[in-house]
């Protein structure tokens, strides 16, 4: 059986069992699914087809006496010239002094190693005398530690395959194998370990990519369904007509994406289950308007609504805009750390006695003294800025309120569903009409004078500018313009008629708030800042965003910064000051100047950085897959998500005999069987 201990495989003794255990291989199944980390192909290719820095195999004639040099303790370097296709290639081997006696001028040798295209040099890791075999096999290379060798794993897998092959049952129904032209499970496992050729290996990988994604999506969707259905919520009997009239009275028309997201949220509010939804929207896409309508719906159902935001100044801005929007329809109050004394006592009383309908605030909302009388809807803006515990405390205020999280960090929809697997996801993926696109330019440092002149010109026209620096102090390792130093320089350049302000992460929070207030009031015209402005204040008058050392930021972060401007009537500009050395940095700058869509940008960012960096190393919910890659196998992830949805809606796991094996794999998962994710 596949769950037998790995020592039951013939030829595996106690010592090898311990080594395999240290690799996480405890059962026969673990061994069979411990797929190679990579494959070496000792296939001879013409020099013109070799790729710089790739591992390659070449064949040639030794045309120089091997030269041996010793350095350090027991370290050596052996080098010789090979003639390959009438070209001289230098071969270098380290710590193989014995090879000097084995290699003579005129010998034909086959060498494998890292290829340096520029020097026409190969750093040899393997060599053999004689020509390469014409039927070069694809060799599996496993990720190893302890004292287990590649050869031992290959032998153990080979034995396990012949000994336990009858236990490797198919888990995908035939209709999926046929529809996607996937190989059977047994054959695919064999080909993953011992591929006959590139084509069959590709199909085996395709099969396990789909299988992993399908299992993952089934588990996550099942978990989300159970979580939603087991969580008692409030069915909000909101007044549909009043909400429709409120939408009609808005000073702007909602986009199709806003209307779609709003409908999903209203459906959740009305359902008996507790809402746990993520509302994603690009910078300026109108998430706040959708949130305001949802809050209004809660009020018409005689409930209170709360909006929690990361900074005081953002809370103040929401308070002013919502007070204006709701006018005579609702009582809106603001609760932040700055609200003290009698005023604070009065607000707490209004909340407790339900005189306050909508409560806007920072994490002050989650303090023990804040007692809601009838909290029906909680909205958390920029949800990633609050810890899991802070979000949980707010969610537990009141009797099972519906919860809506909002984020302006655009994540491709499928990945959002993967990352936030236990949430429903709504996406606002279009901007309101009439909004001017921010013009983005990439310049080198030699154009700084022109950039500074351009800022002055915009300020003279009554506008304001942000100037962003990556770090706030000098570092020996990173050649970065110091924010404080830049502030001093700009103050000198723009004095006396233009006021320059400084903002960075080390300022006390009350000073930060004060600087942002001054900027919002146009008492400061040019704000030098680190990325603390990435999420926050809305200054419609700011028309220029200059980002120093822009190559040091990811695409999503650059896009967030760019979203700080372009919020008013005037044409706005984003200027990236960067001199990237690598191709990735250059590509990033190019994409920024060509793309304004945050969702497209996030997909490009994902391709450049990979999911680990994209979500942050410790982002819970990003699973480790054996074969599948969430970036490159993006379409397969979407296909598996739709298939999983269909399977669960049809109840096939429980009813259809074809799905019996698949159901066993899904229901055997400990998370699905009882544990929940926060």
At a glance:
Its EC number is 5.6.2.4. InterPro entries: ATP-dep_DNA_helicase_RecG, DEAD/DEAH_box_helicase_dom, Helicase_ATP-bd, Helicase_C-like, NA-bd_OB-fold, P-loop_NTPase, RecG/Mfd, RecG_dom3_C. Helix 12 links the parallel strand 11 and strand 12.
Explain this structure:
This protein is an alpha/beta fold and 678 residues long. It contains 23 helices and 21 strands. It has a seven-stranded parallel β-sheet, with helices on both faces. Helix 18 links the parallel strand 20 (542-547) and strand 21 (573-577). Helix 7 (198-230) packs across helix 21, helix 9 runs parallel beside helix 10 (287-300) and helix 19 (583-594) packs antiparallel against helix 20. The protein starts with 13 loop residues before the first helix and ends in an 11-residue tail after the last helix. This is ATP-dependent DNA helicase RecG. It catalyses: Couples ATP hydrolysis with the unwinding of duplex DNA by translocating in the 3'-5' direction; ATP + H2O = ADP + phosphate + H(+). It holds the Pfam family Helicase_C. InterPro entries: ATP-dep_DNA_helicase_RecG, DEAD/DEAH_box_helicase_dom, Helicase_ATP-bd, Helicase_C-like, NA-bd_OB-fold, P-loop_NTPase, RecG/Mfd, RecG_dom3_C. Residues 447-607 form the Helicase C-terminal domain.
């Amino acid at each position: 059986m596949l769950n037998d201990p790995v020592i039951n495989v013939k030829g595996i003794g106690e010592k090898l069992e311990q080594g395999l255990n240290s690799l996480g291989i405890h059962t026969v199944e673990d061994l069979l699914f411990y797929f190679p980390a990579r494959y070496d192909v000792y296939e001879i290719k013409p020099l013109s087809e070799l790729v710089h820095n790739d591992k390659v195999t070449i064949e040639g004639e030794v045309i120089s006496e091997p030269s041996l040099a010793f350095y350090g303790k027991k370290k050596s370097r052996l080098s010789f010239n090979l003639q390959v296709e009438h070209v001289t290639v230098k071969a270098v081997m380290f710590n193989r002094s014995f090879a000097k006696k084995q290699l003579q001028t005129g010998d034909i040798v086959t060498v494998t190693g890292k290829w340096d295209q520029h020097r026409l040099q190969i750093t040899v890791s393997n060599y053999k005398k004689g020509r390469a075999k014409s039927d070069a096999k694809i060799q599996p290379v496993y990720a190893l530690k302890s004292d287990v060798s590649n050869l031992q794993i290959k032998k153990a897998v080979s034995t396990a395959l012949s000994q336990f092959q009858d236990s490797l049952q198919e888990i995908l129904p035939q209709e999926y194998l046929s529809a996607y032209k996937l190989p059977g499970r047994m054959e695919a496992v064999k080909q993953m370990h011992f591929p006959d050729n590139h084509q069959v290996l590709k199909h085996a990988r395709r099969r396990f990519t789909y299988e992993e994604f399908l299992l993952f999506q089934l588990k996550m969707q099942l978990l989300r369904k159970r979580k939603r259905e087991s969580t008692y919520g409030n069915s909000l009997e909101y007044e549909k007509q009043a909400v429709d009239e409120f939408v009609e009275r808005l000073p702007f028309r909602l986009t199709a994406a806003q209307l779609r997201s709003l409908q999903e949220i209203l459906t959740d509010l009305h359902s008996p289950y507790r809402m746990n939804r993520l509302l994603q929207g690009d910078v300026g896409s109108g998430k706040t308007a959708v949130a305001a309508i949802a809050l209004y719906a809660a009020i018409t159902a005689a409930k209170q609504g709360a909006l929690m935001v990361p900074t005081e100044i953002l809370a103040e801005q929401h308070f002013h805009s919502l007070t204006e929007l709701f006018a005579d329809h609702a009582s809106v109050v603001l609760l932040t750390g700055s609200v003290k004394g009698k005023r604070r006592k009065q607000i707490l009383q209004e909340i407790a006695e339900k005189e306050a309908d909508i409560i806007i605030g920072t994490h002050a909302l989650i303090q023990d003294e804040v007692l809601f009388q009838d909290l029906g809807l909680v909205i958390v803006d920029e949800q990633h800025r609050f810890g899991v515990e802070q979000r949980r405390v707010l969610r537990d205020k009141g009797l099972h309120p519906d919860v809506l999280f909002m984020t302006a960090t655009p994540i491709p929809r499928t990945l959002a569903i993967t990352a936030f697997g236990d949430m429903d996801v709504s996406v606002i993926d279009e901007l309101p009409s009439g909004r001017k696109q921010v013009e983005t330019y990439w310049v080198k440092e030699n154009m700084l004078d022109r950039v500074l002149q351009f800022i002055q010109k915009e300020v003279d026209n009554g506008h304001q500018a942000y100037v962003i620096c990556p770090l706030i102090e000098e570092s020996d390792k990173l050649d970065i313009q110091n924010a404080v130093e830049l502030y001093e320089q700009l103050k000198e350049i723009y004095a006396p008629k233009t006021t320059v302000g400084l903002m960075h992460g080390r300022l006390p929070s009350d000073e930060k708030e004060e600087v942002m207030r001054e900027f919002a009031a146009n008492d400061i015209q040019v704000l030098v800042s680190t990325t603390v402005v990435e999420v926050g204040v809305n200054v419609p008058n700011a028309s220029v965003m200059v980002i120093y050392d822009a190559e040091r930021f990811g695409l999503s972060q650059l896009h967030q910064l760019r979203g700080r401007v372009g919020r008013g009537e005037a044409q706005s500009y984003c200027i990236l000051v960067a001199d990237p050395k690598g191709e990735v940095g250059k590509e990033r700058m190019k994409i920024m100047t060509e793309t304004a869509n945050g969702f497209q940008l996030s997909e490009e960012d994902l391709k450049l950085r990979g999911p680990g960096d994209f979500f942050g190393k410790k982002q819970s919910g990003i699973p480790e897959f054996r074969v599948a890659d969430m970036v490159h196998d993006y379409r397969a992830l979407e296909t598996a998500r739709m298939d999983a949805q269909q399977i669960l809606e049809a109840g096939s796991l429980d009813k259809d005999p074809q799905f019996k094996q698949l159901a066993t794999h899904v229901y055997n998962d400990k998370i699905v069987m009882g544990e929940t994710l926060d």
